[in-house]
Each structure stands twice: as structure tokens, then as C-alpha cells.
Amino acid sequence: MIEWPEGEPEPTKYWLSNLSEDISFERLVDLTKLRWRIERDYQELKQEVGLGHYEGRGWRGFHHHATLCIAAYGFLISERETIPPSGHRTTAGRSQPAVPDRYRPRGATHTPRATLPQLDSDHAPKAHRRTGAKNATMPVLCQTSHERPTGELMTQ
Questions:
Q1: What pTM value is reported for the model?
Q2: Which end of the chain is more exposed for a tag (fewer CB within 10 A), N or C?
Q3: Beta strands 2-3 and 13-14: pairing type?
Q4: Does residue 17 contact residue 1 with C-beta atoms inside 8 Å?
């Protein structure tokens, strides 16, 4: 296959193929140009999603990093497909998730009381302390002492 743009004195690119002879010309061009799409995707993975930022030392860490980058890139590509090239985003293929009637967002004021009074989150029970409980001392390691050898336990 030869690429010879109009206005050029000679062809600019040449390709050899070992595909079957009954392949359509459009399919041959698609497969030929696929290399450039893959290289563009790889550049976007490295520059936009962070594939080129891995600085680990092991294969396992790189594999995890690359997997997350590729998953993020796949998500971005699928989102890009839902946006028309020159228009606003359409939500024709998506349904709005149903929100329960009693849903209250986190941090909302005046949260409703629970159905069962023992589960009411507004009135937490007081903590019970045992009578006569004393704070126990904890043994600590002696850090620097001339009288005691290092590692001897000392109580406060």
C-alpha cells in the first residue's frame, strides 16, 4: 500500500502486507493506521494518566500501576464517546439512579430520628465506668541511665 497525498511530488509512505488478498481496501487502511492510534493512546497513557510516573523497582508494583492507569484511561475513553464532538453532553442512553424518599445526605442538618428509639443516633448513651477503677502504670524501657543496664524495665 502506498500513501501519496495530493500536491506531493512522490509518495510519502509505503507499507507491505501479508494479509489475504480478499481483504477490503477500507479494512487494509484501518489495520495500517491502527499502529498510529496505539501510539497515540500510549502517549496519552504516559502523559495524561500517569503511566510514565512509575518509579518502583518491581514487576508486581508496575503491573498494579499499569493496570490502574489502563482502567482509568478506558473509563476516560468511554466517557469521551458519550460527548458529541461539537455539542453538549447527552444523557439519552443513561437513566438517573433512584434516590430513596427518606435519603438525607451526610452532614445535613436536622437528621430524622430512627424508627426504633434504641437506635436513635442523636442521643448516645453515656459511657459507664467501673467504680474504683484506677489508672495502671505502664512499664517503659529505660533509655539512658548510668545506674541500670539498658533494656531493664522501669515503672513510673
A1: 0.42
A2: C
A3: antiparallel
A4: yes
Q: How far apart are CA 137 and CA 23, in angstroms?
A: 84
- 45 in Cβ contact with 70 (< 8 Å): yes
Alpha carbons 154 and 144: distance in angstroms, whole number: 11
Residue that wins the pLDDT comparison between 43 and 86? 43
Which of 126, 97, 123, 99 shows the shortest CA–CA distance to 111? 123
Indicate the SS3 state at residue 47: helix
* Residue among 73, 57, 54, 80 nearest 65 (CA): 54
| Those residues with Cβ within 8 angstroms of residue 104's Cβ, 6 or more apart along the chain or in another chain | 111, 112
How far apart (Å, rounded) are the C-alpha atoms in residues 47 and 45?
A: 6
What is the spatial distance between Cα 51 and Cα 66, in angstroms, rounded to a whole number? 6
- Paired strand residues for 154: 140
Cα–Cα distance, 33 to 19 (Å, whole number) = 15
